[in-house]
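## retry 2 of 3
previous attempt timed out at serialization; input unchanged, resubmitting
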Amino acid sequence: MEIFTNLTIRGSIKEIIDILIVSYVIYKLILVLRGTRAIQLLQGIFVVVLAWALSFLFNLNTLQWLMNQMFTYGVMALIIIFQPELRRALEQLGRGKLFTRSTTDEDHEVNRRIGEIVKTVNYLSRRKIGALIVFERETGLTDYVESGIPLHSHISSELLINIFIPNTPLHDGAVIIRQDVIMAAGCYLPLSENPFISKELGTRHRAGIGMSEVSDAISVIVSEETGQISLAINGQIVRDIKEESFISKLYGELTMKNHTKEKSTFWKWKGGAGSDG
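## retry succeeded, writing output
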């Protein structure tokens, strides 16, 4: 209370700015470390710190001595362990990229992801090869990922085409994509029980719609009978979608720009896409 009492308006503003700067630096460092092995190492460090705190709390002398020895040489060890990540952060700082917004990089990654998907579905559509590709968003799809064959591969049209080639081990089932990683292939999805779905639609389309009913996932379906490309979102499906509309809608959904008005936007888009229901 004494600390807050002695604070002036100028001092308060200075402290707030100080906290905001430190928070922003930590946030940017987390973005730099995200997707690297440093995240797992940080989890290990957290366990060590927790053990050190428990040793003080319960007066565990031997464990406390061991933790003190680890912290004595810990700074040098961290520099050695995190050398690649530290070098990466310093390089980005030197290029002026550490504190810049990452929106451009994210948009570039989404564009690359969509480009690979478009090449894949166009190839499969021309040859009437069936496919079902699911994009995970906010709702986790781990249970469905575990039902398939794990891949953990970066998205590429060549790999996706190879997966869906008939009479190959992985061509049955769905491919589930998390961000820019193909998590698994040959996944089993829940079938839609909607009685109003067209009788023309087979198991692949019903699975794509069913997945979009139980989650906020996006399902891309290629018909093996007609070669038509369909898109299922929120339990609704647009069949034979044109490439321009497909790219536009997929980009908007993956960048989450229209997430707050997802349902109404989908219906407007559905009407403009010339869907046959």
